[in-house]
Amino acid sequence: MDTDLARERILDAAEDLFYARGIQAVGMDVIRDASGVTLRRLYQLFPSKGDLVEAYLARRDTRWLQNLATHVDTAAETPQERLLAVFDWLEDWFTQPDFHGCAFINSFGELGGTSPQVAALARHHKDTFHAYLRELTTAAEVAADTGTQIALLAEGAMTTAAISGTPAAARQAKQAAQLLLTLDTRHVAFPS
Fold first, then answer.
1. Which part of the chain is the HTH tetR-type domain (predicted)?
2. Per-residue DSSP letters for 119-155?
């Protein structure tokens, strides 16, 4: 098996298992069995479990953000519709049978206090996601602070959906985002 194929099979197995069961609950032998790659080859490509976790999170970050942006770019025409399309994408994600919440929140909860690398990857993902939402709000001619508030709605929806097991949080967060957009376009000022 060539290096690229072995790496992809390992990362596919790691993503499925880490996301479904948690990082600490899955050993390298389980990854080996699920990927069909020998333990020796696994350690050649990922010398430690920490290296594998970092590669899993980096790949998930790229894929998740690309999937979101593709949906937003194709699902809506106006800048405000594009911003609200984020919540439609979240709702669809929340309805997937393999949805277990945000992988970055989950990994930070498990390892953020003991792994600076995991904490940094989680922060990077959230910073990038929040910056994307602020870009969408700026394009909609809405204050950047509103983008930050909308990011908090999205984060809350992710956590609520994971705990409640229902996608309703996405619809509720979308309604709140619509309200924020309406208030912002009216230039309603809130006390600091």
1. 4-64
2. HHHHHHHHHHHHHHHHHHHHHTT--HHHHHHHHHHHH
